[in-house]
Amino acid sequence: MSYAGTLTMPSSFAVMEEDEMMYLEGGYFVSKTDCINGIAAAGMNPSTFINAALTVALVSKAVRWVATKFGGIWGVVAGMLASWAGSQVVALGLGLGRGALNKGVDIVFNLNPFKDPIGVNCTVYK
């Protein structure tokens, strides 16, 4: 087969615009059933709550250590980063909860500050 000549398409081909073939964004779709199962598994497992309490205690201690070791402004920065990380966990939990109440959720972690807020973005399918 030679590609030097004209391109012959099959008789049953579909014409698509360029926009339809572009990769727009990634993410991970979580179905309604998977959202329900994930929330139930996390809610029934006592280690979830133990790990959450330990994480809060360790992050609080780490922020205080940074503030003591490097000065107040770095403690503020460390506190802001810890607060942002905690908000991402909450955003993920809310997205899974909304996905369980609807038809599922598409979860994307955005690193582009010019598109959407940086972090977890959840699109719920109703």
Into which percent range does the helicity of residues fall?
A: 40-55%
How large is the count of helical segments? 3
Structural class: alpha+beta
The radius of gyration over CA amounts to 23 Å
Whole-number average pLDDT?
84
Number of strands: 3
Order of helices and strands: EHHHEE
Strand order of the largest sheet: 1-2-3
Unreliable residue stretches: none
User: Biggest sheet, open or closed, and with what strands and sense?
Assistant: 3 strands, antiparallel
Global shape: flat
Distance between the termini: 48 Å
Query: How much of the sequence is in beta strands?
Result: 5-15%
Word description of this protein:
With 126 residues, the protein is α+β, with helices and mostly antiparallel strands. Helices cover 54% and strands 13% of the residues. The chain has a three-stranded antiparallel beta sheet with strand order 1-2-3. A hairpin with an 8-residue loop joins strand 2 and strand 3. Helix 1 packs across helix 3 (72-101) and helix 2 packs antiparallel against helix 3. It is flat. The mean pLDDT is 84.
